[in-house]
Write a structure and sequence with these properties.
Number of helices: 18
Structural class: alpha/beta
Oligomer: single chain
Bound molecules: NADPH dihydro-nicotinamide-adenine-dinucleotide phosphate, (2Z)-2-iminopentanedioic acid
Radius of gyration: 22 Å
Helix content: 40-55%
């Protein structure tokens, strides 16, 4: 029998550390979920006053309670043949409007609370699209950073060995989110096919050769810009053409927001990742950014200034905790596109002081409640995430339609439908806000409109 050459105290130390890690696993962070629920429920008060059915049918409690939370263990082998353990989740929140639908997030910060917040937002976002999709979210605390392609494959395939039991083209259709792009979706799809011998549209965001839709990769970012143009038009503000824009993030949503801004003649001057911010006053070099962040996975934005010495790189560590460099730059419009609570009240005040007139959320819940209150008080055009970033899931629905009909739509066809969907969402949200006496408030307009759609189905179906 082999033994490890350490003292009893060292063994105790090791065991204690392992137990501590396990406790961390189970310590759920529900604050973020209640932040999302509170924002929505407080803003639908005008609807509660107008119609007593919502209280009578106990809709608030019923909507804030997920249908089910599936939690599972993922065991996989790293490249050194060491066994690794992660936790996987699928929060199937509400299928009133259609099959459960929503992305998968792979990030060390993932826990039940984060996925409940994202699943709850997804119900309402999906309802706003006017398409037949319910709300869900899933993922794992797995950290893709620093993992080899082979390790990503082994993890994804182990994840699907559990997840496949709970999904189906008419039941639950996951997609990507932070840390999950078309490479991960492809590995997940491969395992599903191997286990079930079926080629079903059980995931969206698939590569084209596996039944993916053209324009799905671009959809969220492009949709964010279409939504902003519609909002500025409704609010009689100047369009984005020729205007300085600031964008955070350097992933799928941020890069395609930047790409569309450049295409319509705006000047996006920033991008960020978890380590720092790039500021390039001439407009960021999107081709190089894509090369750095998409093709060479894990590349750092620090490299950007090696190619573009006239640009500036500001490490995240150089900025105070409650503020971010990217939101302290003069701009006409701002686009937070990285993660939740990335834009604080101090950031909101800095943006306003620097002349910003419009903020559109590409990420899910990137602005803190205090920041949103500051934007609304100062009459900033504010496009909330559940309306503004719905383009991704809308095109996911188009992918499901193509899969079900065994047809392929052209890029132009999908893009045109995406643009129409974003304009429709924006006009519907603006009209709802007006109808309920909060004209110009897109937060309340989106929450009321979405809540009403889902709640009315729940009431009509009974319990
Ligand atoms: P990606 O994984 O492609 O990119 C995420 C980006 O955000 C990276 O630049 C990453 O930096 C940065 N980031 C992530 N977490 C943090 C953090 N804790 N602190 C600082 N920076 C962070 O994800 P997506 O672009 O797909 O997603 C971005 C946001 O958009 C998320 O909120 C997601 O929920 C939302 N969203 C995504 C949709 C989609 O279709 N993909 C649809 C609708 C919303 P680094 O590279 O250093 O990790
Ligand atoms: O937050 C989101 O809307 C997504 N991550 C996309 C979900 C989807 O099913 O396409």
């Amino acid at each position: 029998m082999s033994h490890i050459d350490i003292t009893l105290e060292e063994a105790h130390e090791y065991i204690k550390k392992e137990i501590e890690k396990e406790i961390e696993h189970y310590r759920c962070e529900h604050d973020i979920f209640f932040q999302a629920v509170e924002e929505v429920l407080l803003s639908i008060a005008p609807l509660y006053l107008a119609d007593d059915r919502y209280a009578k049918h106990n809709i608030i409690r019923r909507l804030a309670h997920p249908d089910r939370i599936i939690k599972f263990k993922i065991e996989w082998l790293n490249d050194k043949n060491e066994i690794r353990v992660n936790t996987g989740y699928r929060v199937q929140f509400n299928n009133s409007m259609g099959p459960y639908k929503g992305g998968l997030r792979f990030h060390p910060s993932v826990n039940e609370g984060v996925l409940k917040f994202l699943g709850f937002e997804q119900i309402l976002k999906n309802a706003l699209t006017g398409l037949p999709i319910g709300g869900a979210k899933g993922g794992s605390d797995f950290d893709p950073k620093g993992k080899s392609d082979f390790e990503i494959m082994k993890f994804c395939r182990a994840f699907m060995r559990e997840l496949h039991k709970y999904i189906g083209p008419r039941m639950d259709v996951p997609a990507g989110d932070i840390g999950v792009g078309s490479r991960e979706i492809s590995y997940l799809f491969g395992e599903y096919k191997k286990i079930t011998s079926t080629f079903d549209g059980i995931l969206t965001g698939k590569p084209l050769f596996s039944g993916g839709s053209l324009a799905r990769t671009e959809a969220t970012g492009y949709g964010v810009v279409y939504f902003t143009e519609a909002m500025l038009e409704i609010e009689n503000k100047e369009s984005l053409k020729g205007k300085i824009c600031t964008v955070s993030g350097a992933g799928n949503v941020a890069l395609h927001t930047i790409e569309k801004l450049l295409e319509i003649g705006a000047i996006p001057v920033t991008c960020t990742d978890s380590r720092g911010t790039v500021y390039d006053a001439r407009g960021v070099d999107i081709a190089y950014l894509k090369e750095l962040k998409f093709n060479r996975r894990g590349g750092s934005l620090e490299e950007y200034i090696v190619k573009h010495p006239e640009a500036t790189y500001i490490p995240a560590s150089e900025y105070p905790e409650d503020g971010h460099a990217v939101w302290n730059i003069e701009c006409y419009a701002a686009f937070p596109c990285s993660t939740q609570n990335e834009l604080t009240d101090l950031d909101a005040k800095n943006l306003i002081a620097n002349g910003c007139v419009s903020v559109t959320e590409g990420a899910n819940m990137p602005s803190t409640p205090e920041a949103i209150a500051t934007f609304l008080k100062n009459k900033i055009c504010f496009g909330p995430a559940k309306a503004a970033n719905a383009g991704g899931v809308a095109v996911s629905n188009f992918e499901m339609s193509q899969n079900a009909s065994m047809l392929k739509w052209s890029f132009e066809e999908v893009d045109a439908k995406l643009k129409e969907t974003m304009y429709d969402i924006c006009h519907n949200v603006a009209a709802t806000a007006k109808e309920y006496g909060v004209e110009g408030n897109y937060v309340d307009g989106a929450n009321i409109s979405a809540f009403k759609k889902v709640a009315d189905v729940m009431i009509s179906e009974g319990i």
